[in-house]
Structures
1.
Amino acid sequence: MPGFMNGWIAGALAFTALSVAAGSEPVDPWHQSGQAALHRALAKQANTARAKNVIVFLGDGMSIATINAARIYDGQQRGESGEENQLSFETFPYSGLVKTYNTDAMVPDSAGTMSAIMTGVKTKAGIVSLDDGVSYDQCDGPTAHNVATGLELAERAGKATGVISTTRLTHATPAATYAHSANREWENDAAMSAAARENGCVDIALQFLTFASGDGVDVALGGGRENFFGRAQADTEYPDKTGARADNNDLINAWQMQHPQGQYVWNREQFVALDLNKTKKLLGLFEPSHMRYESDRESGNEPSLSEMTKAALTILKQNKKGYFLMVEGGRIDHAHHGGNARNALNETVEFARAVQTAVDLSSDKDTLIIVTADHGHTLSLAGDVVRRGNPILGLAQGIEVEHDEHPIRRDLNGKPYAILNYINGPGFGELFGAPKTAYDRIDLSQVDTSAWLHRQEALIPLKSESHSGEDVAVYARGPWSHLFTGTIEQHALFHFYLHAMQLNK
Ligand SMILES: [Zn+2]
């Protein structure tokens, strides 16, 4: 990725031998790069200015192992060894660890975790921006247990706001910025319980339309078109598909009536043709369900996460009072659930590119950028002393050299293993057609472990690979970014960025 501040690393690591400066002692390049890191750390100064703008980047399921492997994958895509590479946000001055549990779950879900980040209080798994007093799947009224979100508070303060996701716009993470729901599945009216409807509660897509804080969400880009129109109506892109709404309301049309100056787009051609400087409100719904993986994006005629980030910031920056933007790399999580590391890493690389786009379009003097994850996954990066520069998606090789080659690492039965594996999920040997004998692993010698849809090996057979309960990372730059250090409870992130914005609840 161009523009990254890692030139000094590439320079230092290009030489494995000691370099000799003219007329002086040999200097170890590692010593030099260590000194450079010290000087950068000493030059850090806390910025206590008000954050006019806040951007929250959320990598769904972006565990620390995911970031680590994606950094290597990204470097290797450019022909580098990989380990020394830095993703855009890894150059941020401050970072910390985040505890992700929900009030009722050690291993959490996206709804409870994102609610904590958006409202400042922890809640139960499956709940969208309601407090812990609510019971899952039980809605006692349209505003019962509601907790104001960072995006709502920014709207009330007159700021511009935006939500971007590669998942459905109504999916748990983006929904937690603008909606409140006792069940994350209530994305359209047909998905709701009769009891909830009778109590006056409304689905998440309709809540997007009726969002009443400030002048409404200014930019919303993602998938999930099906939740915005009825079963009696054909989809614009796929005429053989219909909407998901039982009430047959056309929320896209209603949004256009609400915002006569607004622009609605559903494919990349329309998206790139927009005159963003004249656009005040933008709604983009690029797929009936989730948007496609970055690896498959072009065939789907969809914008990338970084393109959506650039468009959103161009619009939001027009507001003199500032903006609040949430950008989700939502499908890192989906690739992991499928046991598919390559797409998870590729999604993470595009997510990092979107962060770089935001860095390029903002100033750290007045814009706080936070990059974090809602929860982890079981991806593991391991092996018995694996050689430097080993293809990250390949089989593990040792550091010794035998017959001019690095030996393939083997298990107790003589079978090779990959560096990337999952603790559980669909990559269990049995699903590859391997014998059921306990501990008899599949033979990876003839398997292309770097194929786009290859499922990495898993120990425990599950249909869908699971989340992990491990801490995730947070990276921050800009005003008050020095608060984002140490081991932090996830709901405290909200209190930190609200303090940076000098907004009150
Ligand atoms: Zn998930």
2.
Amino acid sequence: MAENSPSGDSITFLGTAGARIMVTSQILASGGLWLSLSGTEILVDPGPGCIVHSTKRKLRADKLSAIVLSHRHLDHSGDINIMVEAMTQGGFKKRGWLFAPSDALEDEPVIFSYLRNYLEGIEILQEGKSYSVGNISFTTPVRHIHSVETYGMIFTTPQHTFSYIADSRYFDGLCRSYGGELLIINVVRLEAGHPFDHLSVPEAKHIITELRPKVAILTHFGMTVWRAKPWEIAERLSQEIGIRVLAARDGMKFDLSQLD
Ligand SMILES: [Zn+2]
């Protein structure tokens, strides 16, 4: 698929760091997912570094139609204000939509109030709801178990369906709620049974086995996963499950035509 082809679907991993230590050390970059879907540009979870890594890759924020925030934690929201400013050309163009859970906008908002007028609109994410951006639709099928209000998404383009499982403690509802040809999954921990509200490698393996996508991409690595070499974990999971599992790399662009 040609670069910036309006009919193609691609996902650029601006960063692959997850949780506090990996993000504050920047051993891996952070910055979220940049979706180019059939000519519609959507930014998901603009963590710290998003403005740097997106501009470096010549991804144009002023072409974005929407920014979608899974939850308010800093590793997902750190650059959300500057990305709203970039999407709206400093507020000179009232454009673009913001989708976020209510607790990202209320008591201690992560999106400054003065920026909200720059946007075409804000929509509150809720469990079981569907949303549309241009020719793309997405749903937030289930509220995750995490310390703040958190949703993953299932995106549907004219050609593909894929899921993004954002931060969560494991629960069976994840296996029942998500689907599609591609699964992107945030895997912070190497071992299960830890006290944190994050998915581990064995839990990710279980989810991939249950959902059986054509391809699964691991990302948002915590220190324990990083030390264990995510690409080796992905290779091992591919062999064990019989499904192609990839470990995202900083700056990796995945073209969804690989699924066809
Ligand atoms: Zn989180």
